[in-house]
Amino acid sequence: MSTFIIAGLGNPGPTYQWTRHNAGFLFLDRLADGENTAITRKSFSGLAGECNHAGHKLILLKPQTFMNLSGKSVMQALQFYKLPLSQLIVVHDELDLPFGAVRFKQGGGHGGHNGLRSIMEQLGRNDFIRLRIGIGKSPYGDTTGHVLGTIPPDQMEQLPRVLDGGIGMLKMMLNEGIPKAMSLNNNKNFLEG
User: Fold this and answer.
1) Residues 122-140 pLDDT 10s
2) Which of 13, 40, 99, 158 lies most in the core, judged by the most C-beta atoms within 10 Å?
3) Are 169 and 104 in contact (CB under 8 A)?
4) Dist CA 47 CA 185 (whole Å)
């Protein structure tokens, strides 16, 4: 049975709970609910939970260090479980994708995302798998306000559908590998069709 760390990125505390930047936390909460588990154990400078899927053990990790120090938490978990980077999946919000799109990506830069930047600095590498949840760009050019802004009601209504689409992609990746999960899902928008 292989172990994967699924690290969802976000900021702790009620102020940030429903902001776009917390897409990673919202994804993990949805995944945990579906698996009847809770992400409540204090460890690795974060909150952790566990579940099993298709013979894989999944460590669900929500760093509680604030976004720009996420790497500290991820590094602690990787070292504790002695896992290679190929068994780390980071779930995060993505400005370059429209709301409704969820994409896998392996490697690449951080694109200005402070959580990814922190993880790359800690690991000294960037070749881990990311599951990017589209939040779209601000029409007003105010990136910080947009990212830390509360998800608007119309998108909140559609969010479960988007997160469930991403969870389906994650499960396909665990079952059938990253190339297949990418080729079958990376052009989808979960609000269409």
Assistant:
1) 999 999 999 999 999 998 8
2) 99
3) yes
4) 29
For the chain, report the end-to-end CA distance as a whole number of angstroms: 36
Phi, psi of 91 (to 5 degrees): -105, 125
**pTM for the whole thing?**
0.97
Assigned domain for 166 exists: yes
Assigned domain for 130 exists: yes
Q: Which of 21, 92, 113, 146 is catalytic?
A: 21
pLDDT tens readout for residues 18-54: 999 999 999 999 999 999 999 999 999 999 999 999 8
Tally the domains of the chain. 1
Domain that holds residue 123: 2-185
The reply to whether 193 falls in a domain is no
Count of Cβ atoms closer than 10 Å to residue 66 Cβ: 15
Question: Distance (Å, rounded) from C-alpha 17 to C-alpha 126?
Answer: 27
Do the domain assignments include residue 191? Answer: no
DSSP string, 45-88: TEEEEEEEETTEEEEEEEE-S-GGGHHHHHHHHHHHHT--GGGE
The reply to whether 21 belongs to the active site is yes
